[in-house]
Write a structure and sequence with these properties.
The protein has helices at about 15-20, 20-30, 40-55, 105-115; strands at about 5, 60-65, 75-80, 80-85, 100. With about 130 residues, the chain is α+β, with helices and mostly antiparallel strands. It has one domain (about 10-120). The strands form two sheets. A three-stranded antiparallel β-sheet has the order 2-3-4, covered by helices on one side. A two-stranded antiparallel sheet has the order 1-5. The longest helix is centred in the middle third of the chain and has 19 residues, at about 40-55. It is globular, with a radius of gyration of 15 Å.
Length: about 130
């Protein structure tokens, strides 16, 4: 698995981004090991760098927040000026759906920026 998907709906749910574990799962599937850096920080950086611009391009205004939790740590505080209820369970905030594909190289480059030297662990793709 080389690419990672970011979906805008995940920002609107406590259970988004695989209940907060999607990037950890991707890392394990890609490198056959735990991530050698803070994946919550990396997820936030990926959302800010790649997903938020796509959301803006689709005509929406989103304000992000980080939440210290064992669930989704990256959420929309507001969307188009309104507060987001992370518990409502609806999946109709974005129509059409907004998905962004991030490559392994993009993830590694951003990981290096937020955690200089992480590559000293020399992650190699699995399989």
């Amino acid at each position: 698995m080389a690419n990672f998907m970011l979906d805008a709906e995940s920002l609107c749910s406590k259970w988004g981004f695989g209940d907060g574990g999607a990037l950890d799962d991707w890392w394990w599937d890609t490198y056959d090991d735990d991530a050698p850096l803070d994946t919550e920080e990396l997820l936030y950086a990926l959302v800010a760098a790649y997903l938020v611009p796509a959301i803006r391009e689709a005509g929406h205004v989103v304000e992000l927040e980080r939440i210290s939790t064992n669930h989704n740590p990256v959420r929309a505080r507001t969307l188009d000026g309104g507060e987001v209820d992370h518990y409502d369970g609806s999946r109709d905030h974005f129509n059409p759906e907004i998905l962004v594909t991030v490559t392994r190289e993009q993830i590694e480059d951003l990981a290096e920026k937020i955690t200089p030297g992480y590559r000293s662990n020399d992650p190699e793709p699995a399989g």
